[in-house]
Design goal:
The protein is α+β, with helices and mostly antiparallel strands. The protein contains eleven helices and eight strands.
């Protein structure tokens, strides 16, 4: 895996304007050269995918991930700094099916993958989407020796399955434990590396567009010529344009 070029950044950000976050994360990893084809990337457990995204963040950006969160108790703003390596958990999603037993029902399920999220993007109701996602990950459902159809699996069992799936792939459901410096209140916040990385690339793309605009006006370079330059060369030309 390697850091994204200026051209890659613009391609990813443009892709994200017309595709979902899940699709953009997969496209991003594909551009980064993971050595995996698109079908394999889409089938990775979400936790495994997110570990790759954390690694890619470290390749693209020096220093920690910075974020701001508002305390739900007093409203004070917290500045959070996180090292990508510290967010990569030791626990890795099981490679094979995992079992859950509840209310006489035995379920064999696999970790959620990106292709599952893509498949439920059209769902209009959150509860229906959650159930559809869980059902996609069930490999077998039995009560004793009797196979169960999806509609025969109760909502409470599906809810327990959701909890079991989160435990089976903790990297996919990362929650930060935060404490407010002003009032001492402790609270949790979900952390989505895909969202963080794509947002950071959007910020980078704005700077790249400014560079392209300035260098095209100042020197008549084409976009392709400018994007083909190293960041050091672009900066050197920009400094010579400064009054």
């Amino acid at each position: 895996m390697q850091a994204l070029s200026a051209s890659d950044v613009l391609e990813v950000v443009e892709w994200g304007t017309s595709h979902s976050l899940t699709s953009t994360a997969l496209y991003l990893l594909d551009r980064a050269g993971t050595g995996l084809d698109s079908e394999t990337l889409a089938a990775l457990p979400l936790g495994t995918r997110d570990r790759l995204l954390l690694r890619l963040y470290g390749e693209c950006f020096a220093g920690p991930i910075r974020a701001r969160e508002a305390c739900p108790e007093c409203g004070a703003e917290l500045e959070v700094e996180l090292r990508p390596a510290d967010l990569a958990l030791d626990a890795i999603a099981a490679s094979g099916p995992t079992c859950l037993q509840h209310d006489g029902v035995t379920l064999r399920f696999r970790p959620t993958a990106s292709h599952d999220l893509l498949a439920i993007e059209g769902a209009s109701d959150e509860a229906d989407a959650a159930r559809a996602l869980a059902l996609r990950c069930i490999e077998t459902a039995q009560r004793g020796d009797t196979e169960l159809a999806p509609e025969e699996i109760g909502d409470e069992t599906i809810a327990r399955l959701g909890e079991a799936m989160a435990l089976a792939d903790p990297q996919a459901d990362l929650t930060l434990d935060l404490a407010c410096a002003d009032c001492g209140h402790r609270f949790g916040r979900s952390f989505d590396i895909a969202r963080v990385l794509v947002d950071e690339l959007v910020n980078v793309s704005r700077r790249i567009f400014c560079d392209v605009h300035a260098l095209a006006r100042g020197y008549g370079f084409s976009e392709a010529q400018i994007l083909g330059m190293s960041a050091w060369r672009r900066q050197a030309y920009l400094e010579m344009l400064a009054p």
